[in-house]
Design goal:
Elements lengths: L14 H29 L14 E8 L5 E10 L4 E14 L2 H4 L11 E13 L6 E10 L3 E10 L5 H16 L5 H12 L1 E2 L4 E2 L3 E8 L4 H26 L6 H20 L2 H8 L4 H4 L11
Antiparallel strand pairs: 1-2, 2-3, 3-4, 4-5, 5-6, 6-9, 7-8
């Protein structure tokens, strides 16, 4: 899946300006996502959890130290446990240093500069109280070695199939992709379907979305506009789906099905997810890396 998208035309690019833009956007998107999710928490009218206080995000700053004891950046964890969102994390980070020798060959451009890298991104995972509201994942990232590229995507993991949710989610992403390149949606949808798949169970993790990596067409502004549009599109469509279902009642059997489905989520993230492996192999913050784990899960 390490597909390199060919550069279409040369264009000037200032690495530092690109880095600064990415960091600013990821932080701003984090703030807007957290504000919208806290707003949703106040809107619940269902009796099941309406007597509980609306959730609010708590934040924790962490710092990364490289193997040679030099500062290596850090990040901020934002976690909310509420009455709509059983657990949602929205993390941002910016880290830099050198990849370990055994990891350098897997990263474009890393072997050409003694493994030096810089990486910034936002990562979101939400596990919901209601089995009728799908779990969701979204991330965006920028990575620099001697090369630079953008990656990310988002995907939806419902407990119960819902045609309207699936159609609306994919339509929003298709429209987003088409605003930038008519070939993006089919390519990135198929990439997502291949990536978020559990080979040991021969089943997909959810209903997909889009997944992209190594985006560097040679036009930084074009590429970054697409990355930003993915984040903004997610902020538009996912809250709409949450509000559509969050006040529906559910049974103990529904909850049991949800907990078993979460087990698949855990299996994928620990066994197959590249982001988890990247974080662990670059000495990332363990709490941030494992933020994606659900608060309660079950296997049968």
């Amino acid at each position: 899946m390490n597909i390199q998208i060919k550069r279409k035309k040369p264009a000037s690019f200032s690495p530092q300006e690109g880095k600064d833009e990415a960091v600013i956007f990821f932080r701003d998107l984090r703030d807007r996502l957290c504000a919208e999710f806290e707003k949703i928490e106040t809107e619940l009218s269902a009796t099941r959890y309406a007597n509980l206080a609306a959730g609010a995000f708590s934040r924790k700053i962490w710092h990364h130290t490289n193997d040679d004891e030099t500062p290596g950046g850090g990040g901020e964890i934002s976690i909310m446990k509420g009455r709509v969102f059983e657990k949602v994390g929205v993390n941002i980070s910016t880290v830099f240093g050198h990849f370990k020798n055994e990891f350098q060959a897997q990263i474009p451009g890393a072997t050409e500069n003694n493994g030096a890298f810089w990486a910034s991104g936002i990562s979101l995972v939400a596990h919901m109280q209601s089995p009728h509201v799908p779990a969701v994942h979204m991330n965006l990232r920028m990575i620099c070695t001697t090369k630079h590229w953008l990656g990310g995507g988002c995907d939806l993991t419902p407990v119960f199939p819902n045609t309207k949710d699936e159609e609306d989610f994919h339509t929003a992403l298709k429209d987003c992709c088409n605003r930038h390149d008519s070939e993006y949606y089919e390519e990135f949808k198929n990439w997502c379907d291949r990536y978020f798949y559990l080979p040991h169970r021969n089943e997909p993790r959810g209903i997909g979305g889009i997944f992209f990596d190594y985006i560097d067409t040679g036009d930084w502004n074009k590429d970054f506009d697409f990355s930003k549009d993915v984040g903004n599109t997610f902020l538009q469509i996912f809250p709409e789906i949450v509000r559509r279902h969050m006040n529906k009642d559910w049974t103990k059997e529904d909850r049991n099905t949800q907990l078993i489905k979460r087990g698949r989520y855990v299996e994928f993230n620990l066994l197959h997810d590249r982001g988890t492996q990247f974080g662990l192999k670059t000495g990332g913050n363990i709490e941030a890396i494992l933020m994606s784990m659900p608060p309660e899960v079950k296997w049968e």
